[in-house]
Every structure is written in structure tokens, then in C-alpha cells.
Design goal:
By secondary structure, this protein is α+β, with helices and mostly antiparallel strands. It folds into three domains: 159 residues, Jelly Rolls (Sandwich), CATH 2.60.120; 60 residues; 57 residues, Arc Repressor Mutant, subunit A (Orthogonal Bundle). Helices cover 45% and strands 19% of the residues. It is built from twelve helices and ten strands. The strands form two sheets. The protein has a six-stranded antiparallel beta sheet. The protein has a four-stranded antiparallel beta sheet with strand order 3-8-5-6. A hairpin with a 4-residue loop joins strand 1 and strand 2. Helix 6 packs across helix 8. The longest helix has 21 residues. It starts with 16 loop residues before the first strand and ends in an 11-residue tail after the last helix. Keywords: DNA-binding, Transcription, Transcription regulation. This is Transcriptional regulator, AraC family. InterPro entries: AraC_XylS_family_regulators (IPR050204), Homeodomain-like_sf (IPR009057), HTH_AraC (IPR018060), HTH_AraC-typ_CS (IPR018062). Pfam families: HTH_18. One of its GO terms (molecular function) is sequence-specific DNA binding.
């Protein structure tokens, strides 16, 4: 497919989805996507034709980026370059949603903090709670309506924050484990597979599933699974599950559907509303009621979702 410039219709380059273009100032394009699952198998690998940042919002899918298979979910961040090859699959049936930022190479060449991105293969990592909240607040601000000048400035500020985060987290969380088991590659592969399987179960089974059931589904004991997951990802299973739950809550709050917080607590597996409020505040620094006001656009985008 011929290369297309930033600002052209992104729907021409992807699998079926619902789209919301948020803005396209000064060599940048930002939009939201909710994938429609029509085929659970792998798409054909396609070469990226621009620099892209993909920030997960909800759901999960498998990706094959430059030949390496991984899982993307609401915690994931991808940075791709022109020429990177990507294929995706949706085996879980739940679809996914994400925000994508496309940037002209000329814009990046003017930024000293983008040198690593310009000179390396695609990067796959995760966002922390503060970066994820900054991403969601940025989307809410764009949906409320900004002029081109302010759009460009806010995108540049967010890009600086994201590139700093990717530089700090450039190393694979499992690198230390890989060095420790360098003479046992089969063990390393098994541990990576076990951690990914646990993430897949949590992504596909909702948030009311227990640890014993997760361990049963991946064919492990709870103790072994917990230990391997911590070593391979740098996060406990509980912390990872809480990150997924909080992001699901933020996604729901942004939709302004008016559901009471007690109902959200039950839906996402919290003990009660107080537990939900405590976990959300611990992660992002604000209670859910305040986040609902911050994340909900005061005026709905008249263009809506295409």
C-alpha cells in the first residue's frame, strides 16, 4: 500500500473499527479506535509507514511486532517506526480500544529526546498510572475542544513525558531473569509463556476470578505462578490486576453513563465502593468522583465516532 501522509484517513490502513479523530495539528494526528472483532486469527503482517504511538485503553489482543509475539492490553504502550512489521490477532473475543498518535519524521527530528526512537526498532512496554491518567486527560481535553495551537502544544508536552518514560523503561523487565537462566533457554521460554498466559486469563475472564482459578487455567500452582510472574514482569499479580481494574474504571467513568460507584465496584471485583475509591486514589491520586468530572467531556464531539 502506498505511504500516506499524517492527517489522511487512518481507517484505510486497519482492520474494522469505530473511529474518533481528535485532532491533527502540525504534522501530528491523534485518534481513538475501538476494534470490531470479525476474525480471531492473525492479520497479515504489514509494514508501518510512519512513527506511531499506540496507548491501550481497554481489552486485549496479541501482536507480532518485528517477529516477536506479545500481549497488548490496557497497560500497554507501543512505539513503532516506518518499516516495522506488525500483525495482530484477537483470540479473546472482547476486542480492544486504544489511542493512537501518528507523528511526521520531520517533527521528531527536531526533538533531541526522540533520537532513540528514530534509531531503534519498535518498542513495546507499559505505562504507569500517572502516564495513563495523563493520556486519558489529554483525550478528554481534545474531546472538549481545543484550537490547533493548543492541540500542538499539549501533544508536544505529552510526547516529552512519554519519551522520557520509554527511555527509563527501555530494558526488558525479564532481562535480569534472562541473564540468570542464560544456560537454560527452555526455562526462560516457559516462564515467559506462563506470565503471558496469566495476563491473557486476567484479560479474558474479567476481574472476579480468583488466584486459584487463574493458576488452574495456566496449569500452575498459585505460589509458582506468583513467583514467576513477579520475576518476569517486575509486578505482582495483585498489582497488575489492580492496574487493569483501575483502567477499566477510568474507561467507564469517561463514558459518562451515570452508573453509581457501588455498581462499578461490584462489576470490577472490588470489595465495595470504599475499596474501589481507595485503590483508585492510591494509583492515580484522585478519587473516582473527581476523575469522573475530569475525564468526561463537557460537550460531546459533534462528529462522534465514525
Amino acid at each position: 500500500m502506498p505511504a500516506e501522509g499524517v492527517g489522511s484517513d487512518p481507517r484505510r490502513r486497519t482492520t474494522p473499527a469505530r473511529w474518533r479523530v481528535l485532532g491533527h495539528p502540525d504534522g501530528m494526528l491523534i485518534y481513538q479506535v475501538r476494534c470490531i472483532v470479525e476474525d480471531h486469527g492473525w492479520t497479515e503482517a504489514a509494514a508501518e509507514d510512519r512513527h506511531k504511538i499506540v496507548l491501550g485503553r481497554s481489552g486485549a489482543y496479541r501482536r507480532r511486532l518485528n517477529g516477536r509475539v506479545g500481549l497488548s492490553d490496557a497497560t500497554s504502550v507501543l512505539l513503532t517506526r516506518p518499516g516495522d512489521e506488525m500483525a495482530v490477532a484477537h483470540p479473546f473475543g472482547c476486542g480492544d480500544s486504544y489511542t493512537c498518535l501518528e507523528i511526521d519524521s520531520a517533527v521528531l527530528r527536531e526533538r533531541p529526546d526522540a533520537e532513540r526512537w528514530l534509531g531503534r526498532d519498535g518498542w513495546a512496554g507499559t505505562s504507569d498510572a500517572t502516564l495513563d491518567l495523563a493520556h486519558r486527560l489529554l483525550v478528554a481535553e481534545f474531546r472538549r475542544g481545543l484550537d490547533g495551537f493548543e492541540m500542538a502544544e499539549r501533544l508536544h508536552r505529552f510526547l516529552a513525558r512519554l519519551l522520557h518514560h520509554s527511555a527509563l523503561n527501555a530494558d526488558d523487565p525479564g532481562a535480569e531473569v534472562e541473564r540468570a537462566v542464560r544456560r537454560r533457554p527452555a526455562t526462560l521460554a516457559a516462564h515467559r509463556r506462563l506470565a503471558d498466559q496469566a495476563r491473557e486469563v486476567l484479560a479474558d475472564s474479567g476481574f472476579t476470578i480468583g488466584l486459584d482459578e487463574v493458576a488452574r487455567q495456566v496449569g500452575s500452582s498459585p505460589h509458582h505462578l506468583s513467583r514467576v510472574f513477579q520475576r518476569m514482569t517486575g509486578s505482582s499479580l495483585t498489582a497488575y490486576r489492580n492496574r487493569l481494574r483501575v483502567r477499566a474504571v477510568l474507561d467507564t467513568l469517561a463514558e459518562a453513563d451515570g452508573r453509581p460507584l457501588g455498581a462499578l465496584a461490584s462489576e470490577y471485583g472490588f470489595a465495595d465502593q470504599a475499596h474501589l475509591t481507595r485503590v483508585v486514589r492510591e494509583q492515580v491520586g484522585h478519587p473516582p468522583a473527581r476523575l469522573r468530572r475530569l475525564l468526561t467531556p463537557s460537550v460531546e464531539d459533534p462528529a462522534g465516532a465514525a
